[in-house]
Design a protein that fits this description.
Blueprint (H helix, E strand, L loop, with lengths): L1 E5 L17 H12 L7 E3 L6 H4 L5 H12 L2 E5 L2 E4 L2 H20 L3 E6 L21 H11 L5 E5 L6 H6 L6 E8 L21 E6 L5 H19 L3 E6 L16 H18 L3 E5 L5 H14 L2
Parallel strand pairs: 1-2, 1-5, 5-10, 6-7, 6-9, 7-8, 9-10
Antiparallel strand pairs: 3-4
Helix pairs in contact: 1-9, 4-5, 7-8, 8-9
This protein binds zinc ion (ZN).
Length: 307
């Protein structure tokens, strides 16, 4: 089996103007993979466009239609920092669809892991609300899709520097989707305290590990070993999804964390070990990461270390 990589030119058409979440991020990733010949060793996967029914696994139809109408009428600002253009609706369908295509590949044992280089990102998007550069919650839609394909227990690892409030919210009362997040605290969006552990039947299936500004590779590795590893082994998932954000990198302009490129490789290798132990494939989905070089190199090292 090979490693897979989801990419599509349609992701570049989501035009955000002068904005940190811009098409150059994906171009930097693609060009770097090409220059290191990693691209020739992995299977390029063309994403499908998610259908409205698939997006509605997580989002309300009224919200989906509102996004569609705003985009088709030329776009605009959805909140203070979330912008859409005319092509953004299609890009957002392709972003969610890329995750669905990746999940199908690992389900059919065509790939052991897939990295989805998609945009717009997703983990802040709520059922009825775009926020933090996110329109549709790609990874949450993917988790529900995996369950439809009989991968019933889904473990989401969110290593973006920000807390994935949208993903947490989608599964807060659900014991079949475990949500783990390690993120800078305090920081946008202001959720993700340690005492947010899930509700009702979902109690104990949300695990938040806020870390202070300045946290380094060794802090992340310690938390992975002490908190993440036992949680994954105990849950014994059928599939592991990663909200792979690279804004915890020491060069990132938006946060104050100090992860190195090598550190991301170590995190990916920890996930690879868990994948083998649980016999669960891995699908990583791009979230943030705004220093182009750090982003491109960290994505490459992630792909190298995934199973
Ligand atoms: Zn982020």
């Amino acid at each position: 089996m090979v490693k897979g990589f989801v990419f599509h030119e349609g992701y570049l058409a989501h035009d955000t103007g002068a904005h940190p979440e811009r098409k150059e991020r994906l171009i930097a990733i693609y060009d770097h993979l090409k220059s290191t010949s990693l691209l020739s060793q992995i299977s390029l996967i063309s994403p499908k466009e998610a259908t409205e029914d698939e997006i509605a696994l997580i989002h309300d139809r009224s919200y989906i239609n509102a996004i569609k109408n705003i985009c088709l009428s030329g776009g605009g600002a959805l909140d203070l920092d979330t912008v859409v253009s005319k092509e953004s609706y299609k890009a957002a369908l392709l972003a969610a669809g890329g995750v669905l295509s990746a999940i199908e590949k690992v389900r059919n044992k065509k790939c052991t892991s897939v990295f989805c280089a998609v945009r717009p990102p997703g983990h802040h998007a709520l059922r009825n609300k775009a926020m933090g550069f996110c329109i549709f919650n790609n990874i949450a839609i993917g988790a529900r899709w995996a369950q439809k394909l009989q991968m019933k227990k889904v473990f989401i690892i969110d290593w973006d520097a920000h807390h994935g409030n949208g993903t947490q919210d989608a599964f807060y009362t659900d014991p079949t989707v475990f949500y783990f997040s390690i993120h800078q605290w305090p920081l946008y969006p202001g959720t993700g305290r340690e005492n947010e552990i899930g509700l009702a039947e979902g109690r104990g299936y949300t695990l938040n590990c806020p870390v202070p500004a300045g946290s380094k590779d060794e802090d992340y590795v310690r938390i992975f070993e002490e908190k993440l590893v036992p949680a994954v082994l105990d849950f014994d998932p059928d599939i592991i999804l990663i909200s792979a954000g690279y804004d915890a990198h020491e060069l990132d302009p938006l946060t104050n964390l100090m992860l190195t490129t090598k550190g991301y490789g170590i995190l990916a290798s920890k996930v690879a070990e868990l994948s083998k132990k649980c016999n669960a494939p891995v699908v990583a989905v791009l979230e943030g990461g705004y220093n182009l070089r750090a982003l491109a190199e960290s994505v490459a090292i992630t792909i190298e270390h995934l199973p």
